[in-house]
């Protein structure tokens, strides 16, 4: 049976169209010869996500984005195709994430820990990961703040570093250099002194070592001597302190006894302080004596009589 040319052309066209459809579907990432589970997630924005973008779990592709639809409220409903060989927990989060610095997008499944698994056609929880620019933005802001602070500091430094400051700074540097030179000269002198007095220094160090060895060897004896000395000083301190306390107590007791006797009118001081009549008599006698002495000075002839030729007879 002979096939007409028109039939051959028709069959060839159908085969070509089928191959074209299958190739286009394959290029989009569709596996024509296997069935996949379909899941959905709805996002507020997609940030450049397109169909055929991969579905990743820990960086491994388990599916692809098969379809995207803009809803009336402005959200985007996204369809995922995932191979049936992978069980997806029902509480898995479909996270929209960036895959590179150029802004490539993918859906990253953060697998949940639930015991129930998502079924074909289920809606997964949608999430959006911060892109690199959003993550870098706080750092960029801090860097800008730091740059502003550095600019202010540099401006202050420029204002501070004037001619006077530079002159003083140069003087300080010169002073430091001179000090270092003087220090170098001193170290050279010390080196020379050490070299010239090496034998004496060695002898001194030997004596010091001998003394330290003697102290080390007699450490126990020195400790005993110090302990005995400490005990003796403690005893002396205690004895002197006790004797001082006893003497002070005796002195206070004697003083109290004297004051008691004075208050009771015993003795001359007690009578003088407590006997008003005696005080008045002594005061009167003192006054009479003063008047007598004054009269003797004024009229001494009244009290003293003498004659060169003897007493005149009446």
TrEMBL record:
Q: Say yes or no: keyword Transmembrane present.
A: yes
Protein origin, superkingdom: Bacteria
Query: Which residue windows are transmembrane per the record?
Result: 9-27
A Pfam family: MlaD
- Matching PROSITE patterns, A to Z? T_SNARE
Keywords annotated in UniProt: Membrane, Transmembrane, Transmembrane helix
Q: Which residues form the T-SNARE coiled-coil homology domain?
A: 163-225
Q: Which InterPro entries match?
A: Mce/MlaD, MlaD_Phospholipid_Transporter, T_SNARE_dom
Coiled-coil-forming residues are none
The answer to whether the entry has keyword Membrane is yes
Q: Which PANTHER family match?
A: INTERMEMBRANE PHOSPHOLIPID TRANSPORT SYSTEM BINDING PROTEIN MLAD, INTERMEMBRANE PHOSPHOLIPID TRANSPORT SYSTEM BINDING PROTEIN MLAD-RELATED
What is the name listed in the Swiss-Prot or TrEMBL entry for this protein? Organic solvent ABC transporter substrate-binding protein
- Give the organism the record lists: Parapedobacter defluvii
């Amino acid at each position: 049976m002979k096939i007409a040319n028109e039939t051959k052309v028709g069959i060839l066209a159908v085969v070509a169209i089928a191959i074209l459809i299958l190739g286009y579907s394959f290029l989009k990432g569709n596996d024509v010869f296997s069935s996949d589970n379909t899941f959905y997630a709805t996002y507020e924005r997609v940030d450049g996500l397109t169909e055929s973008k991969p579905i990743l779990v820990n960086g491994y592709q388990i599916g692809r984005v098969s379809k995207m639809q803009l809803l009336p409220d402005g959200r985007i409903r996204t369809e995922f195709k995932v191979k049936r060989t992978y069980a997806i927990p029902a509480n898995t989060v479909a996270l929209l994430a960036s895959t590179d610095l150029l802004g490539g997008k993918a859906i990253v499944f953060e697998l949940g820990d639930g015991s129930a698994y998502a079924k074909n056609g289920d809606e997964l929880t949608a999430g959006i990961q911060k892109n690199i620019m959003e993550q870098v933005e706080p750092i960029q802001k801090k860097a800008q703040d730091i740059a502003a602070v550095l600019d202010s500091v540099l401006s202050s430094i420029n204002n501070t570093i004037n001619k006077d400051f530079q002159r003083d700074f140069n003087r300080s540097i010169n002073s430091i250099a001179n000090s270092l030179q003087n220090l170098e000269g001193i170290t050279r002198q010390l080196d020379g002194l050490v070299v010239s007095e090496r034998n004496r220094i060695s002898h001194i160090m030997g004596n010091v070592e001998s003394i330290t060895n003697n102290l080390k060897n007699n450490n126990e004896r020195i400790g005993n001597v110090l302990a005995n000395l400490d005990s003796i000083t403690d005893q002396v301190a205690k004895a002197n302190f006790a004797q001082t306390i006893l003497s002070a107590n005796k002195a206070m007791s004697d003083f109290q006894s004297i004051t008691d006797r004075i208050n009771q009118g015993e003795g001359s001081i007690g009578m003088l302080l407590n006997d008003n009549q005696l005080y008045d008599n002594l005061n009167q006698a003192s006054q009479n004596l003063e008047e007598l002495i004054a009269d003797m000075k004024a009229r001494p002839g009244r009290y003293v009589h003498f004659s060169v030729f003897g007493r005149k007879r009446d």
